[in-house]
């Protein structure tokens, strides 16, 4: 979220997640010069949107005007004008199916709740630039930061509710369904309560991020397989996973997949076919550790039906701190 400052131009108000733009000067520059800034708004009721594709990413942007009681700092202009706000949502092009809907929902909720108070966040950011901070400025900063925290909470809640609703929709495409599940799983959001297409079956009976277990998330049929051991080897460069066929029956033509999320898009680090798995047989898989990625999803899929028969979420931080 950015606003247009009458003296210094385009200024970020908040970034969610906070480290999304760290060491990414190209993305920062693109957001600052996004064509949305050149749209003229007739009044504060007008909402305009422009989507820009660049380097395999979509930059969904909306521009709107909110009420402001802040006196502008531009020389010769002290009248109280509305604030120009730009909301930018960045997604990989593979996920652009979600962008428009999520941005519309976010902008509506933020305008409805913060239209008359968002200018306090702007005043707070301006106050932070002052070298000497009076008690009045300190109070402005506290008030703005409090509102900013509320905005971040609404952003996170909106994303959770949106992707949960995609899972519930009976007409949701398999692509949207898969990506929605991936988003919720890797963000640590409990999907135990979510019902598949209004039926009485849920995706999970285990709450995500249950810190009493290293592996929290299970999808589909339970107890087909069991992870018996997870080890971090080669100086934290690889993960060694031992999986047991937990049934007294043979499985054929399985796909074992290990994935992680990069900017909400699912990336594979292992995709291996198992032609035959004997009853109670144990299988060993070794996969590299991706830099700065602590959460992975281990899945076993029936090749002929593409159905997930076993899935577990793996948290490397928990493995380091607990015995498996």
Question: Can you put this structure into words, describing what you see?
Answer:
28% of the residues lie in helices and 31% in strands. The protein has 324 residues and is of the alpha+beta class. It folds into 2 domains: 2-168, no CATH class; 212-321, Sandwich (Immunoglobulin-like), CATH 2.60.40. The longest helix is centred in the middle third of the chain and has 34 residues, at 135-168. It is elongated, with a radius of gyration of 24 Å. Residues 195-222 have low confidence and may be disordered.
Q: What's a quick, concise take on this entry?
A:
The chain is α+β, with helices and mostly antiparallel strands and 324 residues long.
* Coarse shape: elongated
Tell me the series of helices and strands, N- to C-terminal. Answer: EEHEEEHHHHEEEEEEEH
Our estimate of the beta-strand percent is: 25-35%
- What is the subunit arrangement here? single chain
pLDDT average, as an integer?
A: 77
Q: Low-confidence parts, pLDDT < 50 over ≥5 residues?
A: 195-222
How many separate structural domains?
2
Which strand order spans the largest sheet, edge to edge or round the barrel? 2-1-5-4-3
Rg, nearest Å: 24 Å
Separation, N- and C-terminal Cα atoms: 42 Å
Number of strands: 12
Given helix and strand content, the structural type is: alpha+beta
The main β sheet shows up as: 5 strands, antiparallel
Secondary-structure map:
Layout: E1 2-5, E2 9-12, H1 25-32, E3 48-54, E4 57-66, E5 83-92, H2 96-114, H3 119-128, H4 135-168, H5 174-186, E6 225-233, E7 238-245, E8 251-262, E9 265-277, E10 282-288, E11 295-302, E12 307-315, H6 316-321
């Amino acid at each position: 979220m950015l606003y247009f400052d009458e003296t210094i131009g385009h200024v970020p108000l908040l970034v969610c997640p906070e480290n999304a733009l760290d060491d990414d000067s190209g993305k920062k520059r693109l957001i600052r010069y996004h064509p949305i800034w050149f749209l003229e708004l007739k009044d504060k009721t007008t909402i305009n949107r422009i989507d820009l594709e660049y380097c395999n990413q979509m930059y969904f942007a909306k521009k709107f005007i909110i009420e402001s009681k802040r006196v502008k700092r531009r020389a010769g202009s002290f009248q109280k004008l509305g604030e120009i706000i730009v909301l930018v949502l960045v997604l990989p092009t593979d996920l652009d199916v979600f962008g428009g809907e999520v941005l519309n929902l976010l902008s509506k909720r933020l305008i409805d709740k913060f239209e008359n108070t968002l200018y306090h966040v702007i005043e707070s950011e301006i106050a932070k630039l002052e070298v000497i901070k009076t008690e009045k400025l300190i109070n402005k900063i506290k008030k703005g930061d409090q509102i900013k925290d509320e905005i971040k909470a609404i952003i996170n809640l909106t994303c959770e509710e949106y992707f949960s609703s995609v899972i519930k929709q009976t007409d949701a495409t398999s692509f949207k369904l898969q990506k929605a599940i991936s988003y919720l799983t890797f963000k640590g959001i409990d999907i135990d309560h979510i019902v598949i297409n209004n039926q009485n079956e849920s995706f999970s009976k285990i709450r995500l991020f249950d810190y009493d277990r290293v592996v929290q998330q299970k999808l589909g049929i339970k107890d087909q397989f069991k992870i018996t051991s997870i080890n971090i080897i080669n100086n934290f460069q690889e993960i060694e996973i031992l999986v047991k066929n937990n049934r007294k029956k043979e499985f054929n033509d399985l796909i074992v997949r290990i994935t992680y999320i990069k900017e909400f898009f699912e990336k594979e680090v292992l995709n291996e076919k198992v032609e035959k798995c004997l009853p109670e047989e144990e299988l060993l898989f070794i996969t590299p550790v991706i830099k700065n990625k602590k959460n992975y999803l281990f899945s076993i899929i029936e090749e002929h039906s593409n159905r997930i028969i076993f899935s577990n979420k793996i948290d490397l931080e928990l493995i380091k701190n607990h015995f498996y």
